[in-house]
Automatic annotation (TrEMBL):
Organism: Neorhizobium galegae
Residue ranges of domain ChrR-like cupin in the record: 15-103
GO molecular function: hydrolase activity
Matches recorded under Gene3D superfamilies: Jelly Rolls
Protein name in UniProt: Allophanate hydrolase
Length: 117
């Protein structure tokens, strides 16, 4: 495991970073914002009960759960889970307990529903 990943997982290296609003009760820390054709890389922090409404992936999305549990219609993903969402797939995302994830998007997602069901 690369040292930077180990620090994020075991040392909570993300805890001292500044986060800004992203969606209701979800905050973001951009590691690398979208620029041209370059993917966006960020940390997302979900408060307990927070979520992101149904959306479509316009490019590949990869997620590493650093803390807590992130859920979608396919299941629950705990700390250390690695999730890949292919272009064209759709889902909603939430966290009953709160979580922090490292995420990379090839392209921004398209929100399909503004409110969680």
């Amino acid at each position: 495991m690369p040292e930077s990943t180990r620090e994020l997982l075991t040392l909570g290296g993300w805890k001292d970073l500044e986060f800004e609003p992203f969606r209701d009760e979800v905050t973001i820390h951009w590691i690398r914002p979208f620029e041209g054709d370059q993917p966006g890389v960020a940390l997302l922090k979900y408060e307990a009960g927070a979520g992101v409404p149904r959306h479509r992936h316009e490019g590949l999305e990869t997620i590493l759960v650093l803390e807590g549990v992130q859920s979608d219609e396919a299941g629950d993903y705990g700390r250390g889970s690695y999730i890949v969402n292919a272009p064209g797939t759709e889902h909603s995302v939430w966290s009953d307990t709160g979580c922090v994830v490292l995420i990379q998007w090839d392209r921004p997602v398209t929100i399909l529903e503004e409110e969680m069901a």
